[in-house]
């Protein structure tokens, strides 16, 4: 549900708290595997929004929806809220997001890794297919001085600033020319795995995720099962985990030109560019100032464009549409 609009403020005093809204749709899929959560009053003065795109069922994504925030909170409680200043923006204010403050980056990485350990233990108690479930995750932290994003998988967070769209998160896929894709392919090869047809071991479309026990503790068993159909399995050692839950974390300092953040699963991004999403959401917020309706409009857009996946969208209106 959308929160109430915050009080208006000048350029140096961002609207706080920001309004937000969310929407989900199953789309043409047989099951709903996307999930999301927003904690507007999170630790250290942050708004915490997270979105989860599950695969092999919804067991992982729903567990993360209910539990990931606890691990972030525990990490912040241990580290404290004495966080270094956010990175300064360049003159244009639209530079690629810089790496996060070391403490925040470490806190988010530990939260993701600790949550994954617990998730794998929980899933191990369940029958198939739940025990093989996995999930992408993108978490965004918004405060009056900074925006931080942490992600595994191919959901995306986009910041609209001064009419431009800035991707806050990369996509952990193993095809295409991007630097991240090349890095991930090399990491999987170094771990003793292989990439085939743009998938990890010819199976999984993302290279970082929660859950996915087969590519972590169960990877040798997976290798045995793949020996017959994949010649690469004979040479593969799979000595290290092929799919990891360690997020890429980025951070930007708040800027007077900041408009809103869109977090969405690939059910939207498969049919809509970051730039197009920024234009459409801006149009919605200008028309009615309702973040919830803007999120619903993006889900409707993805459906109209015949997305083949579940769709989940969170819109955080940094101007509060006051």
List keywords for this structure.
Phosphatase 2c, domain 1; 14 strands; 7-stranded antiparallel beta sheet; globular; 322 residues; 2 domains; alpha+beta
| Number of E strands | 14
H/E series: EEEHEHEEEEHEEEHHEEHHHE
Number of helices: 8
Overall mean confidence score, pLDDT: 92
Give the structure's gist in a few sentences.
This protein is of the alpha+beta class and 322 residues long. Helix content is 31%, strand content 24%. It has helices spanning 59-79, 102-124, 179-190, 219-226, 232-235, 266-269, 274-288, 291-304; strands spanning 19-25, 34-39, 47-55, 98-99, 134-142, 146-152, 156-161, 164-167, 195-196, 199-200, 210-211, 248-253, 258-264, 311-317.
Q: Could you describe the 3D structure shown?
A:
The protein is of the alpha+beta class and 322 residues long. 31% of the residues lie in helices and 24% in strands. The protein has two domains: 19-171 and 246-317, Phosphatase 2c, domain 1, CATH 3.60.40.10; 179-207 and 210-235, no CATH class. The strands form three sheets. Strands 2, 3, 4, 5, 6, 11 and 12 form a seven-stranded antiparallel sheet that branches. A five-stranded antiparallel sheet has the order 1-14-13-7-8. A two-stranded antiparallel sheet has the order 9-10. α1 (59-79) runs antiparallel to α2 (102-124) and α7 packs across α8. The chain starts with 18 loop residues before the first strand and ends in a 5-residue tail after the last strand. InterPro entries: PP2C (IPR015655), PPM-type-like_dom_sf (IPR036457), PPM-type_phosphatase-like_dom (IPR001932). GO terms for molecular function: protein serine/threonine phosphatase activity. It comes from Prasinoderma singulare. Residues 19-318 form the PPM-type phosphatase domain.
